[in-house]
Amino acid sequence: MMSLGFRLVAPLFAALDAERAHRLAIAALRMLPPAAPSPDEARLATSAFGLAFANPVGLAAGFDKDGEAIAGCLRLGFGFIEIGGVTPLPQPGNPRPRLFRLPADAAVINRYGLNSAGVAAMARRLAARRGSAGLVGVNVGANKISADRAGDYATCIAALAGLCAFITINVSSPNTPGLRALQGRAALDDLVARAIEARERVVAAGSARTPLLVKIAPDLSLAELDDVVAVALARGIDGLVVSNTTASRPEWLKETALARQQGGLSGRPLFALSTRLLAETYLRVERKLALIGVGGIDCPEAAWTKIKAGATLLQLYSALVFKGPALIGKIKRGLVSRLARDGMAGLADAVGREASEIARA
To answer: 291 and 282 in contact (C-beta within 8 Å)?
Structure first.
């Protein structure tokens, strides 16, 4: 029924300003009546960061920025969702327009700039759903005007640890000036140390240990990736999210006028870049960390390629703009079909099996 509803309203959404359509989608999901998604095929079950996932297909951060429609998003059949990014203090983000669809390229450019209602509002929403079904992670960031950005991450983690399934440290948004500099070795080491310290204070107060992940940019050089992996392994980060949107613009984009808009590019044009970085990351972490593969997943084959490149879990968002929620079930069915075709008992058998080849491509 939801897929039919999307087909009926898709022309209306396409005619609306992109951000207005985004807000309308959040409102629609918020109003959905409670209902559990259909059970997943057993072979899709996987584990990462000490958590059990019914299926590996997740919703990427950036869609439900303030956790307004958690139940509705989970109802679509995701194995998990990531809400946010959230900042310590409320901030409006960048001026509009700041979201652009590139239909001919199946891509999106956004320069939202971490618009957020603030961590206190997010904490209240998560506390209110304590005990509810579904795995919900939170993406955290820093305020644009902050004088202590590492401290901002620690503040968010202190407020949210114990209220969610995992927390992703977002140091890779291209829309907050200077944020990506936090991926440098010294800055990241300090940030992660303070983040873990904040998490451990919450654990000492009696809460469960919340896994911490770091989300990286697809535009990292291999030397920069080496630094990120070294910090993650040395500090005991639980996983990496590969990757955020790209500041680059492939020359072959068809929507040439829109491509000149500033912001992070996502969707199909991000697939090759993010998947190659994913494979390079997998080869470096040597299975010591679980990876979430993000960027350009818009069909079962793309999802399967991410897994073969090293992803234990997957996230998508931009493809839903063009293909709607039916894509989630299609990807899950496609993964089951590929497991059967290759004689595999579960997804763990496929993770990273072609990472070397993909990294060299």
So the answer is: yes
